[in-house]
Design goal:
The protein has about 400 residues and is of the alpha/beta class. It is about 40% helix and about 20% strand. The chain contains 14 helices and eleven strands. The strands form two sheets. It has a six-stranded mixed sheet with strand order 2-8-9-1-10-11, with helices on both faces. Helix 6 (about 165-185) runs parallel beside helix 7 and helix 10 packs antiparallel against helix 11. The longest helix has 23 residues, at about 165-185. Residues about 360-365 and about 395-398 have low confidence and may be disordered.
Length: about 400
């Protein structure tokens, strides 16, 4: 039976499990689900104001977290590119109140480069007067921007420069993960009175939405293992909801957290969006390969989009993923080698897939696919099914 995201949030909350792992394609509603759970756990007051700081009840990492940061390239002044932090309680909490800059740097260098160093702009001086009217200076801590450089040896560093989109995503995740490490450390102290801060005492949920979109497989696995290790030592009061569109990340977490021991106790799901705008949260047992045959699920999603004339940009990503998995299984060096069996220009097909697959890495909005490009999805899916030994229903009935 289909549900709204608010109803699914209530279901997750009522399950009262330490960790719930959800697989869903991009565009399904993972980020909106995190907001629905946040509104359930820490709703706003009737006047629209935050009655209780939501951060004291739930922490969440999602697309909104990354929106707190943007680049000032200073092109006119020919100065240093800076990653600007928009004023918000999240970064003020971890930087100004918790002083976690060294640990953020440590975590960031783990997933990026051990020489790539962030520098936090953390204070400025204000001229004012004291009670007697005498001039005085006040140093104010304010974390408004971050610059990046590479250690060149000794105390020398390169000039500041703009890091890649992938490195930027890793940096923002490192801020969140560092805070999460601090939360687990504090809440692991059994006696409430012995804790160095009371700020985390009411924390109930941690919602993590796809922190691995820009990582290679090695770092993706490392991140998943590190997150799983932290979850395993976290106290029982903390409940984790993790959503992802990446089957490898899903599988590593599933295995590291040993979720198969839950048996019939629901804890792993596949989230699907229906045509009428509602959702299904289907219970799954086993990892992505065992519980919902990931490659066959991709094929099903593409077939439904083609049949309903509903091909969108992200379907090209699913198609490429399916080609990559098929090529890897059959021993082809490149996924594009599978296009040799398609009539027409191989380069044109590769270009069509790359245009929409890489759109997330561009600062410009990529247009919707044209009717001809939508037909390309059908043509290339048929190529896989007809030429590379995909099981077909007609064969079973023959």
């Amino acid at each position: 039976m289909s549900q709204t995201l608010e109803e699914i949030a209530q279901q997750l909350h009522a399950a009262d499990k330490k960790v719930q792992l959800i697989y869903a394609f991009n565009g399904t509603g993972k980020t909106r689900l995190s907001r629905a759970l946040k509104n359930l756990i820490a709703p706003k007051a009737e006047d629209g104001q935050e009655g209780e700081l939501s951060r004291e009840r739930i922490l969440y990492y999602n697309a909104f977290t990354e929106d707190l940061f943007y680049w000032d390239n200073d092109l006119e002044g020919n100065g240093n590119a800076k990653l600007v932090i928009q004023p918000n309680t999240f970064t003020e909490w971890i930087l100004a109140e918790q002083g976690q800059e060294p640990n953020i740097t440590r975590n960031f260098q783990r997933y990026a480069n051990d020489k790539l160093t962030p520098t936090f702009n953390q204070e400025y001086t204000v001229q004012t007067k004291d009670e007697l009217g005498q001039d005085k200076e006040i140093v104010i801590k304010a974390f408004s921007e971050v610059t990046f450089s590479v250690e060149a040896g000794g105390d020398e560093k390169t000039g500041n420069f703009k890091i890649s989109k992938g490195e930027e995503s890793n940096f923002i995740w490192s801020i969140f993960f560092t805070l999460l490490e601090e939360v687990v450390s504090v809440l692991s102290i059994a006696e409430v009175g012995d804790r160095p801060t009371e700020q985390f005492n009411g924390l109930q949920y941690v919602f993590v939405d796809d922190p691995v979109s820009s990582l290679d497989e090695n770092h993706l696995i490392e991140l998943a293992v590190n997150l799983a290790d932290l979850i395993k030592v976290a106290p029982s009061q903390l409940k984790f909801v993790i959503t992802t569109h990446n089957p490898l990340f899903y599988n590593v977490l599933h295995n590291e957290l040993d979720l198969r021991k839950q048996g019939k106790k629901e804890g792993c799901y596949l989230l699907e969006r229906m045509e009428d705008g509602t959702f299904n949260l289907n219970v799954k047992y086993g990892d992505a390969n065992k519980s919902f045959s990931y490659h066959l699920h991709l094929k099903k999603v593409l077939e439904e989009a083609i049949a309903g004339n509903a091909v969108e940009r992200y379907h090209f990503t699913l198609l490429r993923n399916l080609y990559e998995k098929t090529a890897g299984f059959l021993g082809y060096a490149r996924w594009s080698d599978l296009l040799d069996t398609v009539e027409g220009s191989k380069d044109a097909y590769v270009r069509a897939i790359n245009t929409f697959t890489h759109s997330a890495l561009s600062n410009e909005q990529v247009r919707d696919p044209s009717p001809a490009e939508k037909n390309t999805v059908k043509l290339l899916l048929d190529n896989l099914v007809n030429n590379y030994a995909y099981w077909q229903q007609d064969e079973q009935n023959g």
